[in-house]
Amino acid sequence: MPPKMNNIQYFVRCAGILCISAMAIQSMTNAAIVGPFDTFEDGTTGGWIHGLDTSPTFPENVATGGPAGDDDGYLRVTAMGSFGPGSRLLALNRSQWTGDFVSPGVTTILADVRNPSLIQVDLRVAFQGGGDWFVSDEPISLAPMTDWQSVAFPISDADLSALGSGDFLSTMSSVTEMRLLHSPTFTNIGQAIVGEFHVDNLRIVPLADFDQNATVDGADLTTWQGAYGSDGADADLDGDSDGTDFLIWQRQFSPSPAIQAVPEPTSLTAACAAVVALGAFRQRFRHSRN
Ligand SMILES: [Ca+2]
Ligand SMILES: [Ca+2]
Ligand SMILES: [Ca+2]
Ligand SMILES: [Ca+2]
Asked: How far is the CA of 104 from the centre of ligand 1 (A)?
């Protein structure tokens, strides 16, 4: 067990976090979206498509029957086998799930998935960046006709391999296309087969989007402040909300280059960071005197 910090050490850590935050925030003009957090509640496919608009098995949003039951939308991905458009079991995304997966520290993609088809579905993720492809070494296998389950796709260097001679960091820091595909063998192309899989709640981990609105911004810092000591702002899914989760927020608030960016006033957030760090120190100091 690591030794407990005394108040001076804790103050130094808080002050350090505050200084780094203030510097990072002052140099920033945008807050980054490091999701998205695909829940498929908006009636769209969230940018998940087939390569050809003419595909007869284009991915579709189904409005009800997700993991939460009635009125929980999800993404339905189907294939009709044989050859030609619509034959292969995959979905690809070139409008979301693009950009820099390295700077925000993403190690995992979580999802709820279901296999209603008669075949075993072997799910892999694949990423294209700079002309290279990186693909899951090992698929996640879903038995035929099985209900919703939560799965995790690890996407660290050790979990993905290049199809060619690509470099992991350069590919994953500039992703232009992500794929979700079924293939028993190592490839970025879905198998041509009659089959189907369903997806919902697709999200990255760690994720500092504590209020789950698909944006990492000052509001998430406020959530972290209120959740300190509980699990209400747990970016790394280790069951607590602590300084590590704060540092993940800080990194995802200003990844460079950002996956996507929206304008946001900077001064308010800098002030918020100061209040949070000071408040955390005070709370800790008060607690230690009781
Ligand atoms: Ca949903
Ligand atoms: Ca948020
Ligand atoms: Ca945590
Ligand atoms: Ca922790």
From this structure: 24
